[in-house]
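Here is the promised in-class demo. Please do not try to memorize the tokens; focus on the logic of going from shape to residues.
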């Protein structure tokens, strides 16, 4: 009876997971963390929401993945997610898709034209945050913004803070991959390691090496969460 129950259950350890990164260095960092675990396929999907959407759509059309996980480095909002910490997304938001008026911003939801926000798989993202805590890796849960343009001014940072009070990080791919996944009903997750503060551009100050090291740890934690 027990055997039969186990056979009928949809077991998380039997799932096949597609991981979407933007550049090769992120893919290699995640793969080091995963240590050749067969159930994960890691792709370099390109930079920006359009490249991420197209690459994800192509991958999930070719193979029946059970989860899509967007991973990479990101900017963190000061006071919400410091450099080298990890952000596990609660939702993936297209930060600039909508319409401006003289005094506000209208999202696609406000306009009745679709949605600018897709929720991350709640149970797994909560579990992941616990796994990071367990390893004493600083982790924050919050919305991850997808912006086609990296924020480079104080003024834009403040606009985003006001518009998205629950945002912890900004990157460029999540909502694109999530759109492709949602069209096939595949749950989405986003895990980001913070390389820089969102705000005035200072590319030399980005801690890419540190963030890639945190991303490698994130790969190991993802493996632990899916295999336990
Ligand atoms: O130059 C390198 O060695 C290198 C290694 C890994 C990654 C990079 C990138 O430039 C990745 C671009 C990627 O980073 C995300 N990102 C990072 N910070 C921000 C931000 O403040 N706002 C938006 N996006 C950010 C983004 O997802 C890009 O795809 C270079």
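The designed amino acids, position by position:
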């Amino acid at each position: 009876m027990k055997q039969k129950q186990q056979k009928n259950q949809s077991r998380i350890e039997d799932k096949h997971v597609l991981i979407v990164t933007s550049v090769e260095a992120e893919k290699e960092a995640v793969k080091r963390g995963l240590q050749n675990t067969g159930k994960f396929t890691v792709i370099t999907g390109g930079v920006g929401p359009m490249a991420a959407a197209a690459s994800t759509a192509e991958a999930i059309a070719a193979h029946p993945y059970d989860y899509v996980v967007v991973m990479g480095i990101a900017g963190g909002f000061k006071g919400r997610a410091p450099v080298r910490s990890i952000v596990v997304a609660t939702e993936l938001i297209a930060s600039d898709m909508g319409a401006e008026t003289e005094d506000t911003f209208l999202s696609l939801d406000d306009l009745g034209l679709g949605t600018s926000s897709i929720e991350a798989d709640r149970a797994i993202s909560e579990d992941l945050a616990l796994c990071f805590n367990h390893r004493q890796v600083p982790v924050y849960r919050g919305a991850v913004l997808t912006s086609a343009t990296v924020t480079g001014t104080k003024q834009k940072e403040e606009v985003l803070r006001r518009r998205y009070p629950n945002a912890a990080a900004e990157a460029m791919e999540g909502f694109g991959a999530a759109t492709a996944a949602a069209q096939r009903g595949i749950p989405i997750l986003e895990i980001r390691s913070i390389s820089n503060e969102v705000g005035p551009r200072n590319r030399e100050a980005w801690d890419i090496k540190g963030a890639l090291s945190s991303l490698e740890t994130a790969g190991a934690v993802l493996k632990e969460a899916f295999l336990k």
